[in-house]
Amino acid sequence: MKQGKSNAMLHAGLIDSLSPMRTMRQMLDTMDRLFEDAMTMPGGTTEVRSPWDVIEDDNEIKMRFDMPGLSRDDVKVSIEDRILVIKGEHKSEENGENNNNWGKRSISSYNSRIKLPDNCEINKIKAELKNGVLYVNVPKVKVERKVIDVQIE
């Protein structure tokens, strides 16, 4: 009988409007709806903008990385064995000035590694951070492919 009573109490907790389980479920449902609403554009189309983008043409590869809250001193761009390495980190803390003694803490971190193709001029790569967006331009060298016909015997 005890087990039946505990099951009834558990189910009552899910129905009770003051139950912590119900409150958590409502919060998760609300977060799901907000996320879905943020991704759905008018007309029912879904558009998600990634925090990075790459455009390539015959002369160069252009990359864009969103890095909100990071300054030039917070970001490091390097090349390691033909791999473009982009790291960024910013930490800030403020003591609580209100009477609740809670301080503000903000941490922004970014780490990405991208293998570059063989036709890139790695010594001429340029990077610029403007308004929280890192732009990286990777010049490409024209590689002339030499075709040699091989005699079949």
From TrEMBL:
Pfam families, A to Z: HSP20 (PF00011)
Domain of life: Eukaryota
Record's keyword annotation contains Secreted: no
Keyword terms: Stress response
Domain SHSP: 43-153
Coiled-coil residue windows: none
BP-aspect Gene Ontology terms: response to heat
Entry keyword annotation includes Acyltransferase: no
PROSITE patterns, per database record: SHSP
Family as reported in the entry's similarity comment: Belongs to the small heat shock protein (HSP20) family.
Protein name: SHSP domain-containing protein
